[in-house]
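Researcher: Here's a chain I'd like modeled. Treat it as a single chain, no partners, no ligands.
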Amino acid sequence: MTAEGTLADRLYEAALVPELWTETCERLAREVKSSTASIFTIDHQGTHRYVTTPNLAETFVRFAGSDLRFSNLRPERAMQRFPFSFARSTDILTADEYARDPIQRAFIEPAGMEWEAGWVFQEPTGHTVVITLMLAKGLDNFSDEQLARLNVLKPDIARAAYMSSRLAFNEARSMTETLSLLGLPAAVIGDNGRVIAMNPEIEVLSPRIRTGAEDRLVLEGAGADALLYDAIQRYKAQVVPTVQSLPMMSRHGAPALILHLLPIRRAARDIFSRSMAVVAVTEVGKVGPPDMRVLCGLFDLTPAEARVARGIAMAGRPEAIAASLGISLETARSHLKRIMSKTGTTRQAELVLLLSGLSAPTFGGGAVSRSPLKNPSDGLS
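Model: Modeled as a single isolated chain. Structure tokens:
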């Protein structure tokens, strides 16, 4: 098998297993005798997500958090070239631009690098994907032979990126489909509240819950919508996001609702997934214990954990729950600890509040038409 074939195989493996992207960058750098290799994506808001060889990791942390990233001329210039192919920075920037380039001065040179080559393309989502490689100070600039070797791999890089993005979108659809089977209205949202996928059950709640400009999830009532915005900002600021529950007051005779934002545990190196949280909707005021299917579907509880959660929701104490289920108190407390971890709660009172209303919802009692799941942007995640 050729070296190109081996690396191409690894690209497709990384598309399926995001944890492999860093190793794939290292192999790409070795393949063309480059000092570094990095892949980063840029969304519509200018957010950068990246994977890179370890020797450039700290530099990318600073770059992704700096406003100077908006001054980077390379992606736009590279998109203007035809045919689209790997090129040196010195080929796409004028001599004057290169001499004054803030990216070169603030990030590339302090990292001990001097030369850069890269390729830029767009996913079907409109997100920009940038592949960039650098050579250390003291080395010659990228040769035509090195660029030719990179261009051999170009189709595989593009297909792997598209595959990874498509899989991320299918995963979002699968989440909403699962909750749809439970009759639970649900949507998957991205970093800025943009809806990636939603099921028919949540569509029938319009206009109380709907999509607005740029496919952002919008709640009826300025107060509820402001709470959702604040919750999304908290999610983005948290290293490990926790479950958040937002109330929606009763309006025009419709029942009060609770929106549960459930974090999606995305791999840190999954740069092609934009899914941030599942939004699941439950109705306030239901009588009776939570529905077992809803507990398992929402929080990934085991059947044993779901039974303990039902007992907690009915204001039961661990001792009484253990006795009623025929398990030891230690086992009941162990289940409770895992339940609180999975639901993102820290106190039993918070857990009781979260679980309130989690019986199988009716939302007007009418059957929901099982139309295909909707993707508001008709694209990928």
